[in-house]
């Protein structure tokens, strides 16, 4: 098996919600290389594996799940209290509020270099984050300044944050990668479909079922990649741990004789490709055609798919902004 993945990641997302209908008060999700591997929420009250290979952790640490369950249930009360503190600090009363903590590390398995981040957000905005290089907290909003001063002066806390991000987190990340290597290092090519909602709609090239998420999808004309009249979507995770993405092509001005000059190309990390030439007969649509196109009635909303926003290439602040939508969809879809 080829060794294509150089950067591995371990991420944790803690979300405390206040007055959000049909959503747990507290949710924790852990991801390895963008694959969800652990989960706990205030409804189930249990920290559990989301990948079979994560059960291997008990071979070396039999109390792993019980110990972390207890720790996370304690954290729930802390996060609940944090929402009340922030509501008072911001002069808020009722309404929907979400407090989040995102932290994690990355490890280069060739150079052994590690990096980490630790930050908090409130109602979708950055609140405070830890700068690993300067070993200080950064407060992007005035309301976080008191917290910054308090935490900067707590040298024990600062030292622990640094130790966790540079030693403890990479230690566990390496273990998880070892347990799940056969799954995390696999390569799966997608199925590629051509979709169109109406005759005047853009034509969508949709690739789903690929792994890993290091991939590209684009349109070509006469073997030349197109940039105009093309809208490319984000890489989104599927329920089964694979990924999907799409690229829209404006075909409103396309002449019938030119259709065969266009093709959609999916490129997976490592060089593997799937190419689909533009052919009206292959288009799946929810309108009837008289020219041989497939008479298949489908919805292009993909509402049945857990369309989390992809976080793999974003800065930590971007990932935190995305997480509310991502977590809400994943939880309410179960």
From TrEMBL:
Residues 190-275 form the Ig-like domain. Pfam families: C1-set (PF07654), MHC_I (PF00129). It comes from the Eukaryota. One of its GO terms (cellular component) is extracellular space. Transmembrane segments: none annotated. GO terms for biological process: immune response. SUPFAM superfamilies: Immunoglobulin, MHC antigen-recognition domain. Keywords: Glycoprotein. The keyword RNA-binding does not apply. Belongs to the MHC class I family. This is Ig-like domain-containing protein. It comes from Salarias fasciatus.
